[in-house]
Amino acid sequence: MEKGIILKVENLNVELGGEKILENLSFEVKEGEVLIILGPNGSGKTVLLKALLGILPIRGKIEWKPGIKISYVPQRLPFIKDIPMSVKEFFDLKNVSGKESEDILKSIGLGKNILEKKIGDLSSGQFQRILVGWALISNPQVLLFDEPMTGIDISGQESIYELLEKLRKERNLTILLVTHDLSIVYKLATNCLCLNKKMLCYSAPKELTSERLSQLYGGEIKFYQHSHE
Amino acid sequence: MGSLMLTKRMALVGDALGHVALPGMGLALLLGLDVSFGAFFFLLLGIFLIWLFEIRTSLPTEALVGVIFVASLATGFLIVPKPELLEALFGDISEVSFGMAIASVVFSILIFLVINRIYPRMILANISNDLAKSQGIKIKKQNFIYLLSIAAMVALGVKIVGSLLVGALVIIPAATSRNLSKNLKEYSLGGVVLGILSCFLGGLLFKLTGLPAGPLIILTSTLFFLISLIFKPR
Question: What is the side-by-side order of every strand in the sheet holding A59-64?
Answer without folding.
Answer: A59-64, A5-16, A19-30, A198-203, A191-196, A34-38, A174-179, A142-146, A70-73
